[in-house]
Structures are given as structure tokens and as C-alpha cells.
Design brief:
The complex is a heterodimer of chains A (284) and B (249). With 284 residues, chain A is mostly helical. In chain A, 78% of the residues lie in helices and 0% in strands. The longest helix of chain A is centred in the first third of the chain and has 36 residues, at 9-44. With 249 residues, chain B is of the alpha/beta class. Chain B has a domain at 3-91 and 165-244: P-loop containing nucleotide triphosphate hydrolases (Rossmann fold), CATH 3.40.50. Helix content of chain B is 37%, strand content 26%. Chain B is built from 10 helices and 10 strands. The longest helix of chain B is centred in the middle third of the chain and has 14 residues, at 115-128. The chains are: A mainly alpha (284), B alpha/beta (249). The interface between A and B is medium-sized, with 22 and 31 residues. The structure holds adenosine-5'-diphosphate and magnesium ion. The site of magnesium ion has 4 residues of chain B, from helix 1. The site of adenosine-5'-diphosphate (ADP) has 12 residues of chain B, from strand 2 and helix 1.
Chain lengths: 284, 249
């Protein structure tokens, strides 16, 4: 129909112009990424010392060791809450509600809305509930629970996707052998969905590690003390970056960023690697 | 075990998929269900192990006895029923786990824990499904790595491991090549020495090769049910004759 115009000069120039525009954009994106990494490495790597990583935080020498402890505990608290709650919610929606009906729709919309809320709003919620109403003050527990609420919709959604991807033939096969619903879910459906669920959980841990807005309002940013209990205030790696940068330690902030970057990269590798490993073991 | 069905009606919502079906299926025979697609063969088959319980809006009336026991009685444990009445599906559906674990699934479900006993059941079931020699060196390998025909025989072995009295097979060879199909047909002739087999098939030659009795379904009704020889050589109903002579279907 439009063969004349398609082969015409004008559109050819447009196409090659588009191609160069794409190349330019790619170069800009890669350059931006390289610049960030390079700049952080250049400023940070010199400061990466035993003292910074694992030393004691004193008036003369800073350390991110308390942040390691804080981050680790936040991960444990948030994962312990969000993973079981998220997985069981998804199992309920997919396996018991058959993924249809009004309730499922409402929960789906709620989860999607929650996933889109800016994290500072979760932070404010955590602040109002745990810091103020419960009077816990700033605490690891309050921060961890708030993080759990933040990652919950992500876990529910990706678990749902993984469950829906399990062929119905597996469920029928198991039920037809006399295994009940519960055994079918735990022995057949969840293991079949494991690779997707594990990947989602690890990526959620990545979000916990990277999160700062929630923690500014719930955790307290006490950078120099190792938290003595889950109700103590504390700090995290991301918060330390903010603290160092705004209190005259820009290079230490960069060094902490290097550590954080490495952890996120490792987590991403772990997520894909573990996902693939599980799939391979199942023979897919 | 004998199967006896009286006045069976089944609705999916408002749609009546089975109409007043009466049927007796004898022990240690192969019974084939034939008929054009959508006539209710799978639906009727799935009543016998109550897989229709899972379908929303499915309503069943009538009386259904297997070995003299009412399978819809309140006291009937549906899981035990399904253990006794095994099922093989159209599309092979091995679980994404090792060959061994696939076969051991049903015995483990019903409480067998000892390794020696599981080993024995696994070997025995694989032998009965004539697939032992092909897989004995790779029992720990994933079942998904096998060919389609092997997967289907594995699914038969998996059903046999539950030690059923009846085996329901819904077009078990329709996704397979002729050689695998031949193996499964030979297998059925062996297995009918010990169990009752009910098979849905699209392939009338297959029915004549393996079935002692054949039932012809049409639009939710059981039109004719007789020995395979009689049904194919001198059908009494016009519709049966039209179907087996290929005038529709
Ligand atoms: N789950 C279901 N919900 C609604 N209708 C169904 C369902 N399963 C089957 N049917 C309908 O019931 C009729 C019989 O189906 P089926 O037993 O699968 O036929 P066959 O196995 O003989 O091809 C068909 O008209 C089909 O559309
Ligand atoms: Mg069918």
C-alpha cells in the first residue's frame, strides 16, 4: 500500500537518523553508569580499610561495622515476616481462590497500589505507628517491620506469578494419586515454583539493603553504637552513606557505597544463579 | 473391582454434559470409551475418581459404586478412592523431580518411609510399566529429561505405585508416536490381568486392538455399550454405525 513511501528517501533518512539516536542514547546511558561507578571507586577505594569495615567506631575513626549488624538484622526481621506472610497470601489467592473472584481483585489492586507507594510514605507510617504510637522510639524492630510491609506486595505478586506458571497437570497428577490439597501444595506446587520465589526473595533483600527513606524515619541513624537488642535504634549501610556525606566524611561515604554496590551486585548474581540451579535440579 | 453407575447426570453450570447414564464395568477387562470430542467421555471418566469435585459449578446426580462401595458417600475418603482408582492423563505430566521421587510419591503419601520398601515399590512399579530397563541407571535423574513416550509410561508406573485396582486412562497415547503407542497398548494387555482398565480413545483401531468392551458416547448420552467385537461388527444404533464408519466425528 505505502510501498512508495516506505522505500522513499525521507523515511530512509529518518530510519538511519533513528538508529544514530539510539546509539547515542545507549552511549549516554552506559557512560552515566560508568561515571557513577568510577567516581565512587576513585573516592572510596582508598578508604576501604579494616578499621572502616570492622573496626570500633571512635571519635577519631569511623566504622560501618554497626551498619553491617543493623542491615543484617533488618534483613532477618523483614524476611522472617514478609516471606511467610507473602507466600501464604499468594498460595491462598492462587490455590484456594483459584485466582478469581471479587476478593482476589480487591487484594490484587491493594497490592499493586502498595507497590507503587513512595517508600518515604511507608517510613512515615512506620514512624507514626512504631516510634510514636507504640512508643518504641527508633528501633530495628520498627524499621524491620516497616521494610517487611514495603516488600510484602512485591513478594506476593512474584509468588503469585510463579504459582500461576506451575502447570495444572502437576496439580491434577498429584491429586489423582490421592495426595490431598495441602500435600499437593507443599510437595508439588511450591517446589515447582521455588526458583521464581527464591529469586524474588533475594531481589527483595536487595531492596531492603538499598532502602534509606523508610529507615531515616524509623531506625534513628545511630551510627556509632552496635545495637544491643531489636528494640535498640541503629543504622544501616545506606543510612551511613547519608550520614557520612552530610557530616564531612565524603570519602567514607564513597567507600560505604562501594560495599553496598558490591552487595547488591552479589545479590543479583545470587538471585539468577540460585534460580537457575533450582531449575536445573528439577531438570527443566 | 466392578464399577456400577446408575442414572448418572452431570451439569457444568446450566449445561448438562451427561444424561442419564447407566453402566456396569467388569473387573479385569479393558473398557474403551469412544465418541466425538465434547461428548462427555473425559467427564464420565473423571467421575470415577471424583476429579470433577475440583470443577466449580459441577453438579452430579445418580449412584456410583466401585467394589460395592458408594464413592460419593460421606464416609468415603476421596484420597483413598483416588489411590484405588489411578489416572493417566492425555498429556504426560511427570513431576519436576527425579524418576525415583515421581514413583515414590504415592507410597510416601500413604506413609511408606522405609528406604528398602520404597526401593522395592519403585522397581516393581517400573517393571510393571515395562520401563525399568530403560531407566534403572538414571533413577536419580529428572523425569523431565525423558522422551514423551517414556514420560507416559513413567506416569503409568507412578499410578501403579499407589497399588490401584482400577486404572483410568484419558487418551493416553494421543500425544505419542506409533512405537510408544504400541508399547503402551502391549502394557495394557499385561496389566488387565491384575486390574480394571478404562480408556478413553479417539482412535477406533486402538479400541478394537485392546478393548474387551466398548462404549459409544454421543452428546452426553451413552448410546451403545457392548463387547468390542459386537459393537464394531454389528452396531444396533444408527448413530454408532455412522460414527464407526467415519460419517462424523
Ligand atoms: N470444566 C468444565 N466446565 C464447563 N464445561 C465443561 C468442562 N469440562 C468439559 N466441559 C464441557 O462438557 C462437554 C464434555 O466434555 P468432555 O468430557 O471433555 O468431552 P470429551 O472428553 O468427550 O471430548 C463439552 O461440551 C465440554 O465443553
Ligand atoms: Mg476428553
Amino acid at each position: 500500500m505505502n510501498s512508495k513511501r516506505e522505500t522513499g528517501r525521507g523515511s530512509r533518512t529518518l530510519f538511519s537518523g533513528l538508529k544514530y539516536l539510539c546509539i547515542l542514547c545507549t552511549v549516554v546511558s552506559v557512560a552515566a553508569l560508568v561515571a557513577v561507578v568510577f567516581y565512587i571507586l576513585k573516592n572510596g577505594i582508598g578508604k576501604l580499610s579494616w578499621q572502616l569495615l570492622f573496626g570500633e567506631y571512635t571519635g577519631s575513626a569511623v566504622s560501618i561495622f554497626p551498619a553491617f549488624i543493623g542491615t543484617l538484622r533488618l534483613i532477618v526481621i523483614a524476611v522472617l515476616i514478609a516471606v511467610p506472610v507473602g507466600i501464604f497470601s499468594a498460595v491462598y489467592l492462587v490455590e484456594y481462590m483459584n485466582n478469581k473472584g471479587k476478593l482476589v481483585k480487591v487484594i490484587r489492586i491493594a497490592a499493586e497500589t502498595l507497590a507503587g507507594i513512595p517508600s518515604i510514605v511507608y517510613g512515615l507510617f512506620g514512624y507514626l505507628i512504631f516510634v510514636r504510637t507504640f512508643q518504641w522510639g527508633y528501633s530495628l524492630l520498627g524499621g524491620g517491620i516497616t521494610l517487611a510491609i514495603m516488600i510484602l506486595p512485591v513478594i506476593i505478586r512474584s509468588t503469585e506469578e510463579s504459582l500461576l506458571a506451575v502447570p495444572d497437570g502437576f496439580r491434577e497428577g498429584s491429586l489423582a494419586l490421592g495426595a490431598g490439597k495441602v500435600r499437593t501444595i507443599f510437595r508439588i506446587v511450591l517446589p515447582s515454583a521455588a526458583s521464581g520465589i527464591v529469586t524474588a526473595v533475594i531481589l527483595a533483600v536487595g531492596r531492603i539493603i538499598s532502602e534509606s527513606a523508610v529507615l531515616i524515619l524509623t531506625l534513628g541513624m545511630v551510627v556509632n553504637l552496635i545495637p544491643s537488642s531489636v528494640l535498640s535504634p541503629g543504622t544501616s549501610l545506606a543510612l551511613d552513606i547519608y550520614y557520612f556525606a552530610s557530616h564531612g566524611y565524603p570519602d567514607e561515604a564513597a567507600a560505604t557505597s562501594v560495599v553496598l554496590l558490591l552487595m547488591v551486585i552479589l545479590l543479583n548474581l545470587l538471585a539468577t544463579g540460585l534460580g537457575k540451579l533450582i531449575k536445573r535440579r528439577q531438570g527443566e | 473391582m466392578n464399577i456400577s453407575v446408575r442414572n448418572c447426570n452431570l451439569w457444568y453450570g446450566d449445561f448438562q454434559a451427561l444424561k442419564n447414564i447407566n453402566m456396569d464395568i467388569s473387573n479385569r477387562e479393558v473398557t474403551a470409551f469412544i465418541g466425538p470430542s465434547g461428548c462427555g467421555k473425559s467427564t464420565f471418566l473423571k467421575i470415577l475418581n471424583r476429579m470433577n469435585d475440583l470443577v466449580d459449578g459441577c453438579r452430579i446426580t445418580g449412584s456410583f459404586h466401585i467394589g460395592g462401595v458408594d464413592i460419593f458417600d460421606k464416609s468415603t475418603d476421596v484420597n483413598l478412592l483416588r489411590k484405588k482408582v489411578g489416572m493417566v492423563f492425555q498429556k504426560p505430566n511427570p513431576f519436576p523431580m527425579s524418576i525415583y521421587d515421581n514413583i515414590a510419591f504415592a507410597p510416601r503419601t500413604f506413609g511408606v518411609r522405609k528406604k528398602a520398601e520404597l526401593d522395592r515399590i519403585v522397581e516393581d512399579s517400573l517393571r510393571r510399566a515395562s520401563i525399568w530397563d530403560e531407566v534403572k541407571d538414571r533413577l536419580k535423574k529428572s523425569a523431565l529429561g525423558m522422551s514423551g513416550g517414556q514420560q507416559q509410561r513413567l506416569c503409568i508406573a507412578r499410578a501403579l505405585a499407589a497399588n490401584p485396582d482400577i486404572l483410568l486412562m484419558d487418551e493416553p497415547t494421543s500425544a505419542l508416536d506409533p512405537i510408544s503407542t504400541g508399547k503402551i497398548e502391549a502394557l495394557m494387555s499385561e496389566l488387565k490381568q491384575e486390574l480394571t482398565i478404562v480408556i478413553v480413545t479417539h482412535n477406533m483401531q486402538q479400541a478394537t486392538r485392546i478393548a474387551d468392551k466398548t462404549a459409544f458416547f454421543y452428546l452426553g448420552e451413552l448410546i451403545e455399550y457392548d463387547t468390542t467385537e459386537k459393537l464394531f461388527s454389528c452396531p444396533t444404533d444408527r448413530r454408532t454405525e455412522n460414527y464407526i464408519t467415519g460419517r462424523f466425528g
